[in-house]
């Protein structure tokens, strides 16, 4: 529970924690002593890390054979600390490397480049094929510094609409990136809606219409890619539509409809809202 449940090691010092184990020991396993503070921080943690390393070995073997991509993104944790995530992605699957707390740091191109440079060194520059970050200007500037030091490592930036890849990317990867562009294109409306909903601003009254618009935009992107007319059948769209509707059915409540109907800018949709 300490390693997977997010419980602080200091909790092992709590007298109620220790007494709970004592109670369990006297009723089922007499003489049992719970792990102590030092053991949790040292030997037991080392064993857990070694176990995780053994589980990750098959994935890391792909890094040597086929190369690995470093993916980095910034976000704020519940304590509002600015964190930078570092992940390694390969054919074997994604591996979380670490999160860096950037509190108190001036996040210019030199700082970002240093963070990414350390990640490349930790994984091994000979295994790293590319580094992918978001498309903030500071990230692009940091990418130029990285490429200057590691010319064999491509640097790319992404947003919700497209992936921008360095021209040095081999042409054989063109088809793969076309598929990535397509995936980003039809999932962008879903992502955009999630970003609007995942804010502290009130948006309950907008969810109903946003959901309808999102489904329409996803269909438009898929049909445009497949060259179909609006009344044509698409097996792929049928699968995506069923997934979206299933999710909406689980989450939709009468409260969404009520909030939508009371929104003065959306009264035109009131009738269709009630019909549903």
Describe the structure in brief.
By secondary structure, the chain is α/β, with parallel strands linked by helices.
* Strand segment count: 6
Gross morphology: extended
Strands ordered across the widest β-sheet: 3-2-1-4-5-6
What pattern of helices and strands is seen along the backbone? HHHEEEHEHEEHHHHH
Describe the structure.
This protein has 276 residues and is α/β, with parallel strands linked by helices. The chain folds into three domains: 9-41, no CATH class; 65-162, eRF1 domain 2 (Nucleotidyltransferase, domain 5); 176-275, no CATH class. Helix content is 54%, strand content 15%. The chain has helices at residues 15-27, 37-41, 43-66, 109-123, 137-149, 174-197, 204-226, 235-251, 254-261, 270-275, and strands at residues 68-76, 82-90, 93-101, 128-134, 154-158, 163-164. It has a six-stranded mixed beta sheet. Helix 4 packs across helix 5 and helix 7 crosses helix 9. The longest helix has 24 residues, at 43-66. The chain is extended, with a radius of gyration of 25 Å.
For this entry, give a set of tags.
alpha/beta, 276 residues, extended, 3 domains, 54% helix
Q: Which SSEs are present, and which pair or pack?
A:
Elements: H1 15-27, H2 37-41, H3 43-66, E1 68-76, E2 82-90, E3 93-101, H4 109-123, E4 128-134, H5 137-149, E5 154-158, E6 163-164, H6 174-197, H7 204-226, H8 235-251, H9 254-261, H10 270-275
Parallel strand pairs: 1-4, 4-5
Antiparallel strand pairs: 1-2, 2-3, 5-6
